[in-house]
Amino acid sequence: MHYSVSSGGHVGPHGVTVSATAPNVIETLAPAERAGANSPPRILIVEDDYFVAIDLEHCLQEAGFAVVGVATCFEEACELAAAQKPVLALMDIRIAGARDGVETAIELQKLFRIPSIFATAHSDAVTRKRAEAAQPAGWLQKPYSSSALLYAVRSALSID
Q1: Does any domain span residue 24?
Q2: Running DSSP on this structure, what letter comes out for residue 133?
Q3: Measured between alpha carbons, how far is residue 107 from residues 52, 96, 98, 142 in Å?
Q4: Is residue 47 part of a domain?
């Protein structure tokens, strides 16, 4: 597999593009949000394919992460983010509704300081350029392995 790397990022050992410019997720949290060090990191999944979403949720939970919910569209993602306060979103670009995953990731970053990892089959140069405003924590090119998913999440959270 070949992955393109935009400036400011690097390809990790699982072929995952990891952002060097996005801030460490844990460092961006307010002190009260960081205080729950014993609880697992909370992750929001934004994916409108039911089977993909269930697989992602299972993989993340098996690895010890807390999945706060699965959103299929912009509105659901914003509602879940406001209510559940995840530290990271796993974001598909093509989602249900009028607003896509790029717009959703930009809004989550702007309103809640929640970075996104884009997990998508749509990572062409134009899409990547649009997504820069969301300050993505990484990119996963579909199809990807569970090890690539976990590497991207752990890298975004700075967990070894």
Answers
A1: no
A2: G
A3: 23, 16, 14, 23
A4: yes
pLDDT per position as a tens digit, 37-48: 689 999 999 999
Residue span of the structural domain in which 64 resides: 13-19+42-157
**How confident is the model over 114-129, as pLDDT tens digits?**
999 999 888 789 999 9
Instruction: Count CB-CB contacts under 10 A for residue 59.
Output: 17
Q: Which two three-digit tokens encode residue 154?
A: 């752990």
Q: Is the dihedral of CA 132, 21, 65, 52 positive or negative?
A: positive
**Does some domain include residue 149?**
yes
Q: Compute the CA torsion angle 68, 152, 92, 8 (nearest 10 deg).
A: 130
pTM > 0.90: yes or no: no
Q: Which of 131, 98, 143 is nearest to 21 (CA)?
A: 131
The continuous run of DSSP H or E covering 46 comes out as strand 42-46
